[in-house]
Amino acid sequence: MTRRLFHLERDGVALLIAREGAALPHVLHWGGALGADIAPDAIAAALSRQTPPGTLDAAWQLSLSPQEGDGWSGRPGMQLRRRGIVHHPRWVVTADEASRERFTVEARDEASGLLLTVSIGIEAGGVVWVEQALAHQGTPEADAIDIDWFEASLPVPSTTDSLLTFDGRWAREKRPVVTAMPAGATVRQTRRGRPGHDSPIAAIASIGEPRWRSGELWGVHLAWSSDLTMRVDRVTDALTLIGAGELLRPGEIRLAPGEAYRAPRTAFVHSSEGLDGFAERVHTWLRARSQHPASPRPLVLNTWEAVYFDHDAARLTALAERAADVGIERFVLDDGWFLGRRDDSTSLGDWVVDQGVWPDGLAPLADRVHRLGMQFGLWFEPEMVSLDSDVARAHPDWLLHDAGHLDHDRSLSWRQQYVLDLANPAAYAHVLGQIDALVRELRIDFIKWDHNRDLVESVHAGRPGGHAQMSAVYALMRELKTRHPALEIESCSSGGARTDLGILEVADRVWASDSNDPVERQDIQRWTGLLLPPELVGAHVGPTTSHSSGRTTALSYRMATSLMGSAGFEWDILSCDADETAAITRFAALYKELRPVLHGGTVVHPEVRDPAWRITAFVGASAAVIVAATVASLEDARAERLRIPGLSGDRRYRVRVRREIGGPQYGWIAPEWFRDGEIELPGAVLAEVGLQLPTLWPLQAFVLHIEAL
Ligand code: GLA
Questions:
Q1: pTM beyond 0.90, yes or no
Q2: Which of 62, 168, 580, 587 gets the highest tally of CB atoms within 10 A of its CB?
Q3: What fold, for 603-708?
Q4: How far apart are the first and last CA of the chain?
Q5: What is the pLDDT of residues 26-47, one digit of tens each?
């Protein structure tokens, strides 16, 4: 039997993929780099499979899409059905193609007529992407094949004993959940038609509990913005696998001859430097994309928490003028501007300006905003429809719901709204036409694209409709951007319910949460940052008292937290007093000064002991910014030292406390450097010895600016 070994390597990550005869290939290694001389024959011998007692006689290796016939008792890589009965494919490899960074294989299953294509590439930052597709190439008379699931998986060492996933809820997204590695086949699924506030977002297996700065870990993420499955298989007579795929409902994908299904791309990320190493790989990959925002991320003013539905042309124009005065660069008019939309019970789907509230339309405001030198942004919720809307009255059949269910039972409403079936070409054309007209007329620079409900029991053309809906949404976003190349889109979904790498193929920013409470935000932004670099994560200064938690916090704390993302305000700044307005103006200048480092540097989380600290560093080539915040009372009376990783050991640095946002409150004796506000030290001293932190009060924050001399 012929045996071939393919070695892929890039940016510190290696893959070893083996082919034996005509069998589907198997992965022998996914992890750290191996260098040039890997002794392929010896590796094959070193890793050849034994036939353990009590298993299949044949020494099958675990293929790229493992199945029962491989002696695999975990979850199969795919489940197919033919005439309703499970179909076990017998893959015969027909072609492969390999380079240093990509391996592609094709295999055929004679009985079904299916062609399987799997392509594995190591892309920028060392992120491994798996792309796979199934194409029905049978004769026209051949049976259609149902795909129940089709997932990508890679092996991880059996020494991984800890699993990090996530859950959360509205206004409290991305709560990390660490468990011991479960035995057997475990799936985590979302059935919301969006990843959801409790989205697992990633599944990360590690040796020991995951830490920020150290430890080896392997994670998986699915670039898909709808229902999904994350899977971990620890089976005692095989390897441990992690993987992911789209969650399909029975009958949703049925391939007739000539049809194909392309699975969403799956990212696999290895790090030998803890969670920061994981994030750095994904950030590097995102930043290397051609569509990654190249212009400085503008300071935003969003009107939602300033006025909610209370639109008044004169007041909003005055707000825009004040925004320009303090240094805002993008003014975003949120919900409430379209036909009859005075509260959230009505009008979604009618993307026409409400003449009652805006008698002259939005052009005067948009023009004023542009003349003030700002970008103009507008809120839409394109996938949704209110029953009380012209569009729903005219086209009740455009809803993505079982019509019978709607007539008899209104229980499927959510925030009093329903979902528009965008896979219906007429509904798609309606939404595209209305949005396109406004983007053109108002010269809209930015769309806040909202999505405020789960999809339940979606039906399109008599079939489960989740896949078709998501595909149509991506196409709609793409079409708008093709027509308006400078247009930017923010993905918002009741806050951060849709922040995956799939949506970021077409969106330029995400809204992390409807909570602007900076205490909550410290953690929400930190964990959103595991995948997304700060320039892609909207972080706004909300009102003094948060509408989602009732908590009152200092302006300096709110501004320090906003500085950690794509910054902005979501507050009626017309109501601010002179001191607050001056602080906001200073903050705007500080954000603009520091954003090259904040949005281009490496995100680093120095290890600290006290659980009340949240310390985040943004480290560039010759400068760094650190935001240090407390989310509760410090446990230690004398705060610990902060050791700052990532700087050059042999350079000298000036460390300055940037007091533009206002000083934090702290214990009555603060370290000398902190009181003076400035100190110079070598990088090695900052990294190895550190700085004595001040004993901050709870819910306080300060900003350090570190510059190489
Ligand atoms: C959602 C969004 C908010 C805001 C409102 C408007 O809740 O997450 O930011 O846009 O809708 O209705």
A1: yes
A2: 587
A3: Immunoglobulin-like (2.60.40)
A4: 63
A5: 999 999 999 988 888 888 889 8
